[in-house]
């Protein structure tokens, strides 16, 4: 069942989601149990992302920006930045990685310019999260999908070129459980879309103020809110808007078949006063997932849309992603210890 979050979590709270039941083993002999415990301790220290003082010592994140060589898209869509942990250059450690997807009319620089970097750096300084890499791709107005006319294959670019490039050029932990994706507004749509369609790549997904729309009215108005939607959606979804193609890519449609992304950790929230009405689409996504008994976290919060909303609540998504990375590390550590105790 979904967990409805009321209000904003206290900064010191770090709710832990239950891990699945482990494999059953015969009771080990005393010396084996001691050895397994030692291995578990060592593995946990080595694999679990740093928290507390270790996180504080890593310092603020630093940006590294460039272009990804691409056969699928052209500049500026292949521009990107990466926010690296403060201690990245002085270590040889590998880090979990979170892909942050920007909103409409933004680009790879918006994370730093609009406040995302400052929010993450504050969490690091307080020891509420440990170091992880944040990847900031530029997506223009693509909605992170392959365009209906086939001219801009952004989804293919993301899956086939961005992720492999990042794993090859930065010290990521290149495993789905240590790879998360988070987006806001248009990027929230993109994060949910990509995670639901490619659960083999991502262990967790977060979305805030996701641009979720149910079916369009017929006829489609040319003015007002729906007229605005139609105009901004024409580039990725056809001009005139191809509603069948939009529906096929819509996270609300993908949510009807949660068996396709079983095991994906999911969090999303939206402002009750969202000026684009996305609160309605987010509430509908919660209803669909709940009707399918798919576990997720969802909240409608006080607030509107945009970076004023993110200033209040972005930390909640970042804490969720960090929690997922920690669970992945503990599972890996436990698996290593069990394997050696046989």
Fill in the keyword field for this structure.
disordered N terminus; single chain; 342 residues; 11 helices; Rossmann fold; nine-stranded mixed β-sheet; disordered C terminus; alpha/beta
What does this entry look like structurally?
It is built from eleven helices and nine strands. With 342 residues, the protein is of the alpha/beta class. The chain has a single domain, classed as Alpha/Beta hydrolase fold, catalytic domain (Rossmann fold). It has a nine-stranded mixed beta sheet with strand order 1-9-8-7-6-4-5-3-2, with helices on both faces. The protein starts with a strand and ends with a helix. The relative contact order is 0.17. The N terminus and C terminus are likely disordered.
Main β-sheet: number of strands, strand sense, barrel status? Answer: 9 strands, mixed
- Order of H and E elements: EHHEEEHHEHEHEHHHEHEH
Please tell me what the overall shape is: globular
Structural class: alpha/beta
Number of helices: 11
pLDDT < 50 runs, ≥5 residues: 1-57, 337-342
What fold name goes in the CATH topology slot?
Answer: Rossmann fold
Helix content: 40-55%
In CATH, what is the class? Alpha Beta
CATH superfamily: Alpha/Beta hydrolase fold, catalytic domain
| Residues in β-strands, percent | 5-15%
> How many discrete domains?
1
Radius of gyration: 21 Å
How many DSSP E strands?
A: 9
Mean pLDDT: 84
Gap from first CA to last CA: 36 Å
CATH architecture: 3-Layer(aba) Sandwich
